[in-house]
Structure to design on (413 residues):
């Protein structure tokens, strides 16, 4: 027999479960399909920028995330080998300045985050299934999904299929949706560390020294998610059984002495390495299907926009779904238009951050030193931080141009 739903959501992670919960709460019949039986640590987003936190509030999910252990950060320090740590710490940035009513970024462990939202979708009335093997999909005017679950074959139809199944989406290509990408420029590794004593749990930090750029995002209770960016040629730098310890040792640097507390911690998960680059689908929909989250493209992880992008996607798509019974492709044109410009601006910001913070050697070090000096006189040279923290629409289009990039990097004529 074939079951009929308003929506079939493929992918029960953050985007899929948030969308399923929102639409089930709105009274729509939702089938939520998740391949895994347990959410595992895959070193994916655990940091929601202030503008992304605002999106969780608009979706009515913020209190749920706080109750599940969401941890706010309230200050940011940028360390660098070109200045003393005391100087960097004296210039700490308050993180409540970006979005009114949001005290700062919100951190929550990714597997727990996924499970919290999956359970919420079921609580709100979605039929939420785990351990699902999708065997076929049909899109168009009457979309259909065939799948295996608990040894039984099932077929379901819906008015619309939502693809929320991540970067390696199995929905995207069969739907005829094209994903573009830029060229990888660095490698990016991440790991969860626990039993960290001595680090201020409200403080996030970044920094560059030698051939390594780091990012630090505390989650509370002695747990910190750390990331590092390094050259493409060093692909196996943190591979093998000693990789986690080598990764921790990379944090022992002179320009950020407090990093020793992190290096003295204990690996609490795998160290995974992936490429620094952006992907995007200019039209993340087709007849009978819409993509959200990483399935529709993601920015370079050096700026950590994955969760914020996903929550914005979910909010925009569910607003459209709740506003009208017209779920035709034309109804999602505004979503595509907003997302294309959002991604373009964030790709620009990510490229600028990567050039400033994750290029190594004497010339990049001097560029960072000179930029810091010029930025003290012209704050607009650091305004890309507002695009990352307050949202890409928070600053004008003139700050996303080749001319502005040249000015920031000291290359303007």
């Amino acid at each position: 027999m074939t079951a009929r739903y308003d929506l079939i959501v493929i992918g029960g992670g953050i985007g899929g479960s948030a969308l399923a919960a929102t639409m089930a709460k709105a009274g729509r019949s939702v089938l939520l399909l998740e391949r895994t039986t347990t959410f595992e640590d895959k070193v994916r987003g655990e940091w929601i920028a202030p503008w992304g936190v605002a999106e969780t509030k608009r979706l009515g999910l913020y209190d749920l995330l706080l109750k599940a252990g969401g941890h706010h950060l309230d200050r940011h320090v940028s360390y660098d080998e070109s200045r003393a740590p005391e100087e960097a710490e004296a210039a700490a940035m308050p993180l409540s300045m970006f979005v009114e009513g949001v005290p700062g970024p919100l951190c929550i462990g990714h597997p727990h985050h996924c499970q919290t939202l999956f359970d919420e979708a079921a609580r709100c009335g979605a039929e939420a299934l785990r351990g699902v093997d999708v065997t076929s999909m049909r899109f168009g005017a009457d979309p259909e999904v065939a799948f295996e679950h608990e040894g039984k074959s099932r077929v379901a139809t819906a008015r619309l299929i939502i693809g929320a199944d991540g970067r390696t989406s199995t929905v995207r290509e069969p739907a005829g949706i094209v994903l573009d990408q830029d060229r990888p420029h660095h490698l990016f590794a991440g790991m969860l560390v626990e039993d960290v004593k001595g680090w201020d749990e409200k403080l996030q930090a970044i920094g560059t020294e030698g051939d390594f750029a780091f990012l630090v995002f505390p989650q509370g209770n002695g747990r910190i998610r750390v990331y590092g960016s390094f050259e493409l040629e060093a692909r196996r730098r943190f591979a093998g059984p000693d990789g986690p310890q080598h990764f921790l040792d990379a944090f022992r640097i002179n320009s950020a002495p407090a990093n020793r507390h992190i290096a003295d911690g204990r690996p609490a998960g795998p160290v995974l390495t992936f490429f620094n680059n952006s992907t995007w689908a200019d039209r993340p929909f087709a007849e009978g299907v819409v993509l959200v989250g990483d399935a529709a493209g993601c920015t370079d992880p050096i700026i950590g926009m994955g969760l914020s992008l996903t929550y914005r996607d979910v909010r925009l798509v569910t607003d459209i779904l709740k506003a009208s019974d017209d779920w035709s492709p034309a109804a999602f044109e505004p979503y595509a238009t907003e997302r294309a410009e959002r991604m373009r601006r964030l790709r620009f910001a990510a490229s600028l951050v990567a050039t400033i913070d994750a290029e190594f050697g004497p010339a990049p070090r001097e560029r960072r030193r000179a930029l810091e000096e010029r930025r003290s006189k012209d704050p607009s040279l650091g305004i890309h931080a507002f695009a990352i923290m307050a949202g890409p629409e928070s600053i004008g289009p003139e700050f996303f141009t080749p001319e502005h990039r040249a000015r920031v990097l000291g290359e303007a004529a």
